[in-house]
Amino acid sequence: MTGVDKKPHPDTDVILREASQGLDVRSRRLFLRRAVGLGTLTLLTGCDVTDGFSAEAVLSRMSDFNDRVQAWLFSSHRLAREYPESAITRPFPFNSFYQPNTPAKAPVIDPVTYRLNITGRADRRDDWTLDQLYALPRVTQITRHICIEGWSAIGKWSGVRFSEFLRRIGADTRAKYVTFRCDDDYVTSIDMPSALHPQTQLTFWFDDHLLPREYGFPMKLRIPTKLGFKNPKHVGEIDIGNDYVGGTWETVGYNWFSGL
Question: To the nearest 10°, the Cα dihedral for 172, 71, 151, 92?
């Protein structure tokens, strides 16, 4: 680590209610978010999902199918919409995976001792200081952050293209995954084609100011072609490899690819 150191169909209401009874609180939250797809899938497959275990199995298969389709449709030539400065959302909302959902719980990271660790399939795996990261070629995008919880906001993000960073460290772009481990104990991973997308960015500045602590200081991944939870904050380690490690939310049922 570092130097810190998606309204059920009326015909499926009863099925969904019964199926959700066997789930714990966190799983039920995920179940309800994905219920719209469950109604469609049961009609297509004739699956019996009147118990929690079967519901989870169906939802898991549906999630895997969604991931494969999204990855197949993904194109590095398709860009997320960019906006004028007048469209920027101010204040930009704060959100976190930890509770209470408050900036006060965001990690405090010393910029002097911070180090970005590089692991896995890369020729140059030296740690990076903030000064070195800030000296990289800077690009800016004004794009929409879309949260899986239903809200969205437009922000201005500046940093280095991730493809440029991967080039500089000699990353093996034939590898399947790039994994991000963060100083708030968050973990997520993305596929290499998404990593190489021209709008995927290592972000150090927000709205022309140093990236604030609540938005991920000292560095976050900005990837506007994916849902917000695939944009990790407080990144401390970047690992390139072929091992699928899932992620904090993916492990409990969120779609891994989650492309827009």
Answer: 20
> How many Å apart are CA 1 and CA 109, to the nearest integer?
12
pTM equals 0.75
- Say whether 81 sits in a helix, a strand or coil: coil
Render each residue's pLDDT in the chain as its tens digit; 260 residues: 544 333 333 333 333 333 334 444 444 445 444 443 444 334 334 444 444 544 444 444 444 545 454 544 555 578 999 999 999 999 999 999 999 999 999 999 999 999 999 999 999 999 999 999 999 999 999 999 999 999 999 999 999 999 999 999 999 999 999 999 999 999 999 999 999 999 999 999 999 999 999 999 999 999 999 999 999 999 999 999 999 988 999 999 899 999 97
What does the DSSP 8-state code read for residue 219?
-
Rounded to the nearest angstrom, the gap between the alpha carbon of residue 126 and the centroid of all alpha carbons in its chain is 25
Element (H, E) at 39: helix 35-45
Two structure tokens written together for 252 = 């409990």
Per-residue burial over 205-218, b if 16 or more Cβ lie within 10 Å, else e, is bbbeeebebbbbbb
- Look up the CATH superfamily of 85-252: Oxidoreductase, molybdopterin-binding domain (3.90.420.10)
The size of the chain, in residues, is 260
The domain segmentation of the chain, as residue ranges, is 10-73, 85-252
Q: Give whole-number Cα distances, 161 to 89, 123, 142, 167, 209, in Å.
A: 23, 19, 14, 10, 18
What radius of gyration do the chain's Cα atoms show? 19
